[in-house]
Amino acid sequence: MDKKKIWIVTELFYPEETAVAYIFTRIANHLSNSYQVKVICGPEFYDNNKKGFVDDLNISGDIEIFRTKSPDLNKNSLIQRTIKIIILSLRMGYLMCRKITKGEIVLLATNPAPLLLLVRIIQSYKKFQLHILVHDVFPENTIPARIFKNDKSIIFKSIKYLFDKAYSCADQLIVIGRDMKEIISEKVHRFKTFPSISVVTNWSNPEKALLENSDTINTDKIILQYAGNIGRVQGLIELLDAFRLSNNEGLCLNFRGTGALHSYIKDYITKYNLVNINLGGGFSRNEETEILANCDIGIVSLSNGMYGLGVPSKSYHLLSAGKPILFIGEQNTEISLMVSENEIGWSLDVSNQNELIEFFNQLSSIDRGILKEMGRKSLQLANIQYNEQTILELFQSEIESVKRK
Question: Is the domain 206-384 a CATH 3.40.50.2000 member?
């Protein structure tokens, strides 16, 4: 008996190493056991700084990939990135019109964002079953990114209505956090018909963990590390300011990654002559275990205004590495809740600078045994609650539970 066909439509896919690409590749591999998986995606590399990196992630030979080209423009320039995603959305939409037939299943990413508007139109005559995996909530995420000042302008409200309507036309929305479910529900429930909403978190890879990571750090200082996208919505400016003002010589803060604020952090370190802050470049997924091992505490941060708009996947990688997590962001978001509920670190309000400074001032006196115990709990959580196979099986069952509207 032939397997049922499912289309995965995402800008980012194997061999690209961004978190979204990795997640969709793993989902595709898992679904290929039960479905004919076909993928419509963008070019192989989103981040030109990582073209030389090699990943050992394998992709099933049963997966058929249809790629479209993307203009070679600077993703860190707002104007060039906007032009790039519009052109890419049009090209991917064209491929969907050509390839997808009536009654098939489509799993859509939220990047590139304009594609959501096109898919609403395409779906109206193709009549496919549409599932959207929500990693980014557009256009709300443009406000903390400072593209829009607030949500009061007519332009923003008009764009929001169009995207809210596009979300509401799906058969199912799969979100990656409890706070995101709250925001997405507000977006779609004002319409006459709206999709079911399911929460399926990202997952950990405990098989790659180093069980005694803390023993690899040969320093009297407590090393904190932020490893990931050095972007505009990560709350890194607030982190830098609080760490500098604490002036605690018993701490060291390391950054690893690429992104729009990389040069800002480099200039910041030079401006204030900060010898206890280090800035490194990007790293491959193969290097991730070693990178994450080289710290006592892993940092996950988000800017104010990011409630329900994103759930950093680096959080789950830190669980796999057996590390305590310092979350800096809005409270009651998914990672804030995960850290507090499981006692695996600290959750601090990104807008409370005094609280951040006080935390850094007191941190160097913490008992190392407490850090090890938090790390042990993190690894246990990775193995049980956020195990990859468990999460992927839940993901598939959620898709299969939905019937066409």
Answer: yes
